[in-house]
Design a protein that fits this description.
Length: about 260
């Protein structure tokens, strides 16, 4: 059974003491009894400090991006080998802000996924459509193509190691949430694409998350869908209380899916 996971994407927010404070609070609350998995992705410059705080905890450390190169003349880039030094386990790849603001292409993202896998990171591979694409009824087709491009030439074993995050761009940081039903529809489609490129068993093991204005007052509606395996959370991950509420909602959903496996 897939375990739910809540991943905090701190983006370019918090100063050092705020980031440390948040990490301490989370560490104090997340323990072996926590039913959902938890990860946080601070800014690169705080990875060292946060890694020290999270040592010995059940919280995974993630990075928000990574170069597809290992070393060399790439001013301003961060190599996967550097991330290894800080016990980073996951890397967000292909976030829509990287695609839109920094012009990352599907090819760049595919290359980064391959590099991440080579260095044994779990890629958190993001996909999602713009509002105009959804309004033109082309969201499914668009996201399908993004997923196919991102996993191009990966082996089945590599596909199994991914976490996918469906994040409709129009819902990110806007307060507009995609309904659970709509998110589940796209996420089921993504699982199907993964099945076609790997196997039924693998597609049943890959976790696919929803992201976009996730908050404790809307997440119950999303996480109740059995195909939705957790959340990639921006704004609501910056406050310990709010983030921990999401972790507990995901944990409850996990418990419920175990007692009623075929619920929604
Ligand atoms: P948000 O961001 O929760 O602030 O909408 C989500 C994300 O960009 O991953």
């Amino acid at each position: 059974m897939r375990k739910k996971i809540i991943i905090g994407n701190w983006k370019m927010n918090l100063n050092l003491s705020e980031a440390q404070d948040l990490a301490f609070k989370l560490k104090g609350e997340v323990n072996t009894k926590t039913l959902a998995e938890v990860a946080v992705c601070p800014s690169f410059v705080y990875l060292s400090a946060i890694s020290n705080i999270l040592k010995g905890s059940n919280i995974y450390l993630g990075a928000q991006n990574m170069s597809n190169q290992e070393s060399g003349a790439f001013t301003g880039e961060i190599s996967p080998l550097m991330l290894k030094d800080f016990n980073v386990k996951m890397v967000i790849i292909g976030h829509s802000e990287r695609r839109q603001v920094f012009n990352e292409t599907d090819e760049d993202i595919n290359a980064k996924i391959k590099t991440a896998l080579k260095h044994e990171f779990t890629p958190i591979f993001c996909c999602g459509e713009e509002l105009k694409t959804r309004e033109a009824n082309k969201a499914e087709e668009f996201v399908k193509n993004q997923v196919l491009a991102g996993i191009k030439d990966l082996s089945k074993e590599q596909i199994e190691k991914l976490i996918v995050a469906y994040e409709p761009i129009w819902a990110i940081g806007t307060g507009k949430v995609c309904s659970g039903e709509d998110a589940n529809k796209i996420i089921k489609m993504i699982r199907n694409v993964i099945k076609e490129k790997s196997s039924v068993d693998i597609s049943e093991r890959v976790r696919i998350l929803y992201g976009g204005s996730v908050k404790s007052d809307n997440f119950n509606e999303t996480i109740k869908y059995s195909d939705i395996d957790g959340g990639l959370v921006g704004g609501a991950s910056l406050k310990a209380d709010e983030f921990l509420k999401l972790v507990s909602l995901a944990g409850n959903a996990h418990e419920q899916s175990q007692s009623h496996p075929a619920s929604v």
